[in-house]
Amino acid sequence: MHAKILLQVGAGGEGNILYFILLYLPFIFFMFYGQRFQMQMALLEIGGMLKQLEKMKDFAKREALNTLKREGCEEKTAETSLEVLLNSFTILPTSMDPAGVVGKVEHILNIRDAKLITEVKKAIPKADEATARNVENVVEATAALDQIYRIVRHFYLLGKKMGNLYAVIQLQMLAPQIIMYAKAFVSAVYAFKNGIPIGDGIGALVAAKMINGATTEVIAKDTVSSKLEYEKRKAFIIKAQGPGGNVGKPGEAIKKIIEDNGEKIKLIVMIDAALKLEGEKIGEVAEGIGAAIGGIGVEKFKIEEEASRHKIPLHAVIIKESIADAISVMKKEIHNSLGEVLERVKKIILENSQEEEGVIIAGIGNTIGIAQ
Amino acid sequence: MIFHLQIGGFGDESFLYILVLIIVIFIFMTFFDSMRKRRQFTIERPITKTELICPSCELREVRECKEKDYILKNTDQECKKCGAKLSISSIYAEERKKS
Fold this sequence. Notes:
The complex is a heterodimer.
Chain A: E1 4-9, H1 16-70, H2 75-87, H3 101-123, H4 129-162, H5 165-194, H6 202-211, E2 217-220, E3 223-230, E4 233-240, H7 250-261, E5 265-275, E6 285-289, H8 298-309, E7 314-321, H9 323-327, H10 332-336, H11 338-352, E8 358-363
Parallel strand pairs in A: 4-8, 5-7, 5-8
Antiparallel strand pairs in A: 2-3, 3-4, 6-7
Chain B: E1 2-7, H1 12-39, E2 47-53, E3 60-64, E4 74-78, E5 85-94
Antiparallel strand pairs in B: 2-3, 2-5, 4-5
């Protein structure tokens, strides 16, 4: 087979020089200035993202201020308190010598939580406990947005100042993910402000449905437990104390129940929301083994420690959802998984424990808008 | 097989116009995309529903979520069937219908 390739540039004559410039000049330009051009384009895009983040942060701040004012805080005090809360920081302990670091982390977090709620209560002294917790959650979501904005701005300005293409490109690559997280926090502000249950609260909701108005006692800080007869077993249902925005201390609660009931506890079932992978259905229920609990790891450590010390099987039921769903108003699909979760919990208990034995059922998650 | 690539076949001026047009479109699209990204942020409040249940006859009722609603709250609202006080059984967000 013969291939005849005819490449004819220009029709001939003096015009050829113009075509030559138009065709080859961009190549020469991109050879020397390609990276700079790419960087300017990336900076333009990040600039747009930064503008969006600023709007989100301002919106969250406005909402937080309105919430404080709604609860009876003076405008000037609200602004000062919010500024103090947003600028506060937590220094986690060093892990150079990791032995005992969990206790140190817990200590620091306890102080942080106490400080945060004290500041909020100082700003809105007339508000009840649940409202103060909700406002605390609004402030935390606002602080998260503020932090995201500051970090993105830092890298944007640094990249611009240093002319560092690779730093800017990395930020550009992360941009869609950053915006996704920021949008999730904006939805969280709305849910927290109005005290509406969020997707993360599905575990607490399951526990609340099991307790269903029965007597509860405060077993650990911000955590309640109810002792019930369930399928001829002694069931200890644990959840954070609602309806204010709380996650409680389920690790501490489980530890206490095991200590008080000795060898009677034969099973721990944990129910929590878990992050779904892209393509997975929202509200999908799955069961497995291990401590289903998020956070920094203090409560998880305590639960694993107690379960392994007493050789108690640790089962988990998770409800899949995205990060945005977890901190936004609970979607109907997540709520609809409730029936299936209750069925799975029942099945696990029947298969893994005998009558008269003790079982712990822990509903994990933020209990905002969910009482017991 | 014959590859015949002829640039400039449109005539001198046409080629120049096409090239300039491509560059203008490219610049316009880049800036339009950047501006669109800047404007993108809108706050859409979810449609939040509260489901109430009658503890005696189990009649269910769905209404818009009100301030201070929470799950397992005993409301002052009465059951349309038996007159008992309703309690909140669930609160959830419904998907906004796309127009």
